[in-house]
Q: What sequence folds into this?
């Protein structure tokens, strides 16, 4: 009971002070809290929670081990299907997936599956060796984000020699450069990456595939197959007047400079300037992350402007943002950035209204004529989405792309238009969730393994 009281006090302290630092906001369960929560699981015969998990973690099985206080065994069960459990326990949209499918939702709150997964992952500290028999096949993985790391881990435990090529100087992809420290501590990412390395996976940083070498080079150098998990690092340009004014950032640049280059530190070699009033354009998780980061960098007022009424970001992150003083301006869209001496000084906004789409049923929007107004601001962060970088596709003959440069991959196997070359994650779908990228990496690994085992080809 004393531990629980202490935890409540810590939560209250963080609620009052957390928007001034980059320490992790959400506090994990204690052992007693985890065991108590696990006892709420009904261990259903037909667990819908598992069906809601993109990587099919056997949820009731690992929760049962928590009930028995066999936390290391619980971790091993999770790890059979999920190579990044400490990450998923923190950033997965559980409310739309496993928890959203929990039977307990019918009479109250679902079991807190995500927090239980996080507890088990943080508790586990044993390093195990990979005992898989080597099969003399070499696989190259491009990108060390959630898709690439998952693919690499899945193949390593099946006996493949895997090398991951990362363009940046630190592995982790979006886990390292895109998600803020207060939501996903980088030490957690490092630990998860180290566990992948312990499986025998090699990670080579500062190599840009498409510049340093090509996919053809990799295949010529003896790699039997290639997986492309290069992500979606190219910002989507809004194309409205004034977008090139100073003090207007794209969210991926802004978050990379803060998360990867530590721009929030006083002695940073790459500091980032933030005005007193910051306006963030967009409503997804990246927009909310940018807004909460701007607040921690010293902004007095931070606004999120979104053209629709329902914000697509995770509910938990929206709640945290409101608690930290972030204000939301909904049914509003920017039409022009206005500057003075080359710096942004205001945004011309227009009110929007929702329209019922006849085709999909999804509510679209349109601008309300004559509703324009000026909104003064010192800094703008554009979080309007990201697309795939064309570096790889532009130098890979025969690689089919679609949409805004996204790589085409078979929906069942994730094979591209080139034999033995696979792709998955944001490079294929555009910016999406960590867990969906992991699902793609896992699916591709299984298809690669099936191909080399000479099973009936579906690739």
A:
């Amino acid at each position: 009971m004393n531990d629980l009281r202490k935890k409540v006090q810590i939560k209250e302290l963080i609620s009052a002070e957390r928007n001034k630092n980059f320490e992790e906001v959400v506090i994990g369960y204690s052992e007693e809290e985890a065991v108590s929560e696990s006892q709420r699981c009904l261990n259903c015969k037909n667990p819908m929670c598992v069906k809601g998990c993109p990587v099919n973690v056997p949820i009731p099985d690992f929760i049962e081990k928590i009930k028995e206080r066999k936390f290391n065994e619980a971790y091993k069960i999770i790890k059979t299907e999920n190579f990044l459990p400490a990450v998923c326990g923190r950033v997965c949209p559980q409310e739309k997936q496993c928890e959203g499918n929990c039977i307990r939702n019918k009479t109250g709150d679902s079991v807190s599956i995500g927090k239980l997964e996080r507890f088990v992952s943080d508790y586990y500290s044993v390093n195990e060796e990979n005992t898989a028999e080597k099969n003399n096949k070499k696989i190259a993985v491009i990108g060390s984000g959630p898709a690439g790391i998952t693919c690499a881990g899945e193949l390593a435990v099946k006996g493949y020699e895997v090398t991951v090529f990362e363009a940046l100087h630190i592995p982790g992809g979006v886990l390292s450069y895109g998600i803020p420290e207060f939501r996903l501590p980088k030490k957690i990412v490092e630990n998860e990456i180290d566990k992948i390395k312990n499986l025998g996976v090699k990670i080579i940083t500062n190599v840009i595939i498409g510049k340093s070498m090509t996919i053809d080079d990799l295949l010529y150098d003896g790699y039997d197959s290639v997986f492309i998990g290069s992500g979606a690092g190219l910002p989507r340009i809004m194309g409205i007047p004034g977008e090139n004014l100073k003090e207007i950032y794209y969210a991926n640049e802004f978050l990379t400079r803060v998360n990867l280059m530590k721009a929030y530190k006083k002695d940073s070699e790459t500091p980032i300037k933030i005005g007193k009033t910051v306006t963030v354009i967009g409503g997804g998780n990246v927009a909310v992350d940018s807004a909460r980061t701007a607040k921690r960098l010293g902004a007095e007022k931070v606004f999120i402007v979104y053209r629709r009424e329902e914000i697509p970001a995770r509910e938990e992150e929206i709640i945290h943002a409101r608690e930290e003083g972030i204000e939301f301006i909904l049914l509003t869209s920017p039409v022009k950035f206005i500057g003075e001496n080359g710096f942004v000084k205001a945004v011309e906004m227009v009110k929007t209204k929702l329209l019922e789409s006849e085709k999909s049923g999804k509510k679209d929007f349109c601008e309300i004529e004559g509703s324009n107004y000026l909104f003064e601001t010192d800094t703008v962060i554009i979080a309007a989405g990201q697309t795939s970088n064309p570096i790889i596709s532009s130098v890979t003959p025969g690689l089919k792309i679609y949409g805004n440069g996204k790589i085409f991959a078979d929906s069942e196997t994730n094979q591209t238009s080139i034999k033995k070359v696979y792709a998955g994650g944001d490079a294929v779908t555009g910016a999406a969730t960590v867990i969906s990228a992991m699902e793609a990496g896992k699916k591709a690994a299984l298809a690669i393994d099936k191909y080399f085992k000479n099973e009936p080809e579906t690739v």
